[in-house]
TrEMBL record:
Domain Nitroreductase: 13-182
SUPFAM superfamilies, alphabetized: FMN-dependent nitroreductase-like (SSF55469)
Family in the record: Belongs to the nitroreductase family.
Keyword Nucleus annotated: yes
An MF annotation (GO) of this entry: oxidoreductase activity
Protein name: Nitroreductase domain-containing protein
CDD domains assigned: Frm2-like (cd02140)
Localization (cell): Cytoplasm; Nucleus
Any GO CC annotation of this UniProt entry: nucleus
């Protein structure tokens, strides 16, 4: 039970969506930077193109992000949805300690599309796969450090404002936002679909 595979599974089970967060961290900012860097170095990417980009916003910078989200959502949501859904939800994200923005820069993948035209159309999808792997890895690792995280999607609404404020190249594509902070409660109950419908093994 103590081999590496079992420890990784334990980490995977520990990764849950946690929404009740405070503006504290269980680890230092240096440690956060170190872990984000490890994820950048060791998560796979198509053709090893390393197209993932992660922008980490902490404390006041994190709060600015969720202020922007509330502003842009306020401009387009029906008032009732804004009051009942977005305002409390976004206030919950803003109450956290930080957010990691996951981007993909398509430029490093472009030459492979020219070299292998038969798979050029699949490359954006594969970049998304790699982004998801980065998201999962960092989410799992931060929770293993005692933080709570949840994954959000406020693109494309926030894209232009975020690019402008934090000098993010407009060509980068924003895939997801991972909110984190010190958890104040457990994750919600989770139902599991039967594995008989999901896992198939032939040739045992
Ligand atoms: C691709 C993807 C998109 C998701 N988008 C959101 C989202 O926009 N907002 C949110 O609160 N949770 C989002 N989630 C979290 C899922 O709702 C959550 O992972 C799922 O309900 C299982 O719960 P768990 O994370 O606690 O295991 C997303 C998860 C994935 C994998």
């Amino acid at each position: 039970m103590h081999n590496l595979a079992s420890k990784i599974v334990k980490g995977m089970k520990g990764r849950r969506s946690i929404y009740a967060l405070t503006n504290e961290s269980t680890i230092s900012d240096d440690r956060i930077k170190e872990l984000v860097s490890e994820v950048a170095l060791h998560t796979p990417s198509p053709f090893n193109c390393q197209s993932a980009r992660m922008v980490v916003l902490l404390k006041e910078e994190h709060q600015k992000l969720w202020d922007i989200a509330l502003e842009v959502v306020s401009a387009t949501s029906p008032p009732e949805v804004l009051e009942k859904v977005y305002k409390p939800r976004i206030a919950g994200f803003r109450a956290g300690y930080g957010t990691v923005l996951f981007y993909e820069d398509f430029a490093p993948l472009k030459p492979f599309g020219e070299q292998f035209p038969m798979i050029a159309g699949k490359l954006p999808e594969w970049a998304d796969h790699s982004s998801g792997m980065h998201q999962f890895a960092l989410w799992t690792i931060l929770e293993a450090e005692g933080l709570g995280c949840n994954l959000q999607h406020y693109s494309p609404m926030i894209d232009a404002r975020v690019s402008e404020l934090w000098n993010v190249p407009v060509e980068w594509s924003l895939k997801a936002q991972l909110v984190f902070g010190k958890p104040t409660g457990p994750p919600r109950d989770k139902a599991f679909e039967s594995l008989d419908k999901r896992v198939f093994i032939h040739g045992e």
